Amino acid sequence: MSGLKITEFSVHDIRFPTNVTGDGTDAMNKECDYSAAYIVLKTNSDLKGQGMTFTIGRGNDIVCYAIEQIANRIVGKELAPIFADMGSFFDFLVSDPQHRWLGPEKGVIHLATAAVNNAVWDLYAKHEKKPLWKLIVDFTPEEFVKATSFRYITDAITKEEALALLKEKEPTKKAREEEVIKKGYPAYTTSVGWLGYSDEKVVRLTKEALAQGFNHFKLKVGADPEDDLRRGRLIRSIIDDKANLPEGRVIDPATIKGKNAGPAGCVLMVDANQVWDVPQAVEYMKKLEPLKPWFIEEPTAPDDAVGHAAIRKALKEINIGVATGEHAHNRMVFKQLLQLDAIDVCQIDSCRVGGVNEIMSILLMSAKFGVPVCPHAGGVGLCEYVIHLSLIDYICVSGEMERNVLEFVDHLHEHFLYPVSINAQGRYNVPQDPKGGYSIEMYDQSMADYAYPEGSYWVAAADAAAKGLPPPVPPHP
Ligand SMILES: C[C@H](O)[C@@H](O)[C@@H](O)[C@H](O)C(=O)O
Ligand SMILES: [Mg+2]
């Protein structure tokens, strides 16, 4: 590898018109075009690294500009010393005082950091000819700790504690790797219950998801309690009826323990996307108690760790848990959520925090505090990313899988060269292609068609708008 260098990069504003079909909508985000602020890192060899962060449309260009500014700092850098010390590389990425002033480690600048950092991890994995998860799973505990970001979290977990935790899991790693390759990783679906879907669509998609093997379903709530109850009861009426289970389907009790599962072994979760104040969240969730959800996700402002703790305490008496994390912008927010006993489920986002190194910190803290990690994946490319992170969590860090569920949304996978897939038991297959890296490479054609505003789709949409016609509906396989 001697002499391998980053020589240049290109940044792409790619937007998919999910708003046309209402995909991805929730009580806070009633319109959204799933978008990727995407970077391709080039080297003085054939090797390329791809990375992205997720936005919901407008504003993707602002993130792209920030990505350019961060990527400028790594052009010309040799890769051997970076790969040998990814922890120091992360510190370098977040330590430019001018960029740091814009965060630190939050907001647009941190989203951009994630895209660049994830692209370097992708390069590293491809260079080693391993999928990203396997690259990290093959680290020694010492290498794992070296690549993790510990700044500002040593009051929650020290390097020594992390090392001890990883060493304890080390002897049984191989067995877990074999098991998950055979069985797949547990998943749940959100794409049955987007807020903008009609009741008919919710019913149809719930039946389809059940037939596909899912037994965990998430519904968007928070716009109107009567609507939520009606939609939730519709879903419950399908998933609680044993007759609807696919033939021969047996649900493992370990996957549903303590989750308010219904008589057919199915679990419902609800997600409010931050619409409530703390007391409102408690009052509203009391109204939704008949739905018996396992948890309420994002009940209030994502930075409010104390507020989440208060909601969790209040909802304990009606046996509803609290989940959050998709908008928790760095490891320090997760630290506080864990230290305050504020969450039952930790929902990391692969590109809202600064990329893989920071995820490793959060996985370690969650394992120490005994909180399951169920990553957020409602967006474009996020499912492709997070399966790698859940595998790292299971094989190296927590050693637990059946209590966990990884979010799955069935949108836009056709644009990726190494898309995720779900097996007949409703579980994620393990990505195995040695060329796939962090699974985020997009087809050139997709990047060209959906580039904003010059891609063929957006030109056609602008033409339609000029003629007063509705936007074209993109083909879905
Ligand atoms: C706007 C997005 O689709 C969100 O609704 C989505 O990420 C969601 O919160 C989720 O949990 O998947
Ligand atoms: Mg959510």
Task: Please render the helix and strand layout as text.
Blueprint (H helix, E strand, L loop, with lengths): L5 E10 L19 E9 L4 E8 L4 H12 L7 H6 L1 H9 L2 H4 L6 H21 L4 H6 L3 H7 L11 H11 L3 H11 L1 E9 L5 H14 L3 E5 L4 H15 L27 E5 L6 H10 L7 E3 L7 H12 L4 E4 L6 H9 L5 E2 L9 H14 L12 H16 L8 E3 L18 E2 L15 H6 L6 H11 L11
Parallel strand pairs: 4-5, 4-10, 5-6, 6-7, 7-8, 8-9
Antiparallel strand pairs: 1-2, 2-3, 4-11
The protein binds 6-deoxy-L-galactonic acid and magnesium ion.
Which descriptors would you attach to this protein?
8-stranded mixed beta sheet, binds magnesium ion, alpha/beta, 3-stranded antiparallel beta sheet, 477 residues, single chain, 2 domains, Enolase-like, domain 1
Q: What does this molecule look like?
A:
With 477 residues, this protein is an alpha/beta fold. It folds into two domains: 151 residues, Enolase-like, domain 1 (2-Layer Sandwich), CATH 3.30.390; 256 residues, TIM Barrel (Alpha-Beta Barrel), CATH 3.20.20. The chain is 41% helix and 13% strand. The protein has 18 helices and eleven strands. The strands form two sheets. Strands 4, 5, 6, 7, 8, 9, 10 and 11 form an eight-stranded mixed beta sheet that branches. Strands 1-2-3 form a three-stranded antiparallel beta sheet. Strand 5, helix 11 and strand 6 form a beta-alpha-beta unit. Helix 1 crosses helix 5. It is globular and about 60 Å long. The mean pLDDT is 97. The structure holds 6-deoxy-L-galactonic acid and magnesium ion.
